[in-house]
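Slide 14.
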Amino acid sequence: MLWEALLVKNFQLLQVYETYRNDIDAVHDLTKNDIKILVETLNEYRKIALPVFDNLDNAGQKALGYTIMEEFFYHLFNKKVQLMNINHENLFLGKGNSYVSLSFSPSSFAEVFVKPSAYIHTKDQDFVLGVSVEISVSADGNEETTATVIPVVAIECKTYLERNMLDSYAATASRLKNAIITF
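Slide 15: predicted structure.
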């Protein structure tokens, strides 16, 4: 009996998801009214999906609630990129590891001339719109190259913030903001 109830609930959830996706796909511009429609559609889907996700065993560890927002941001920004006719092959859109800061840690003063040991600090982001790049640092013919994403938009999709992590999130946001402005 419980299995049948779960099957019915999951089928209903799938139908609601398909309606949600169809509604998102039906929006072709991003006027203020279109964005309002997208947000209303998101909220309707979340209203039905979140209770189902929350009732799963160990729901906090499944990370399903915020994946709804990650997908929403993907569709929203993908529409914006398409409207702007941005077709660069190094465009990055989605969950990713993005640039935060650059520092150097050579083993000695003499070593800085040969191998400055660049450290590219990156952070996993729930959603990033940016550019995939390779950052190279060279000294005396030695070159170090690191691939990363320079974020133009970086979003953490949190449905629950632990109070002890709030300062960490604020500091990361500040570093990303400074990195984008100064890069």
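Speaker note: The first strand starts at residue 91 and ends at 104.
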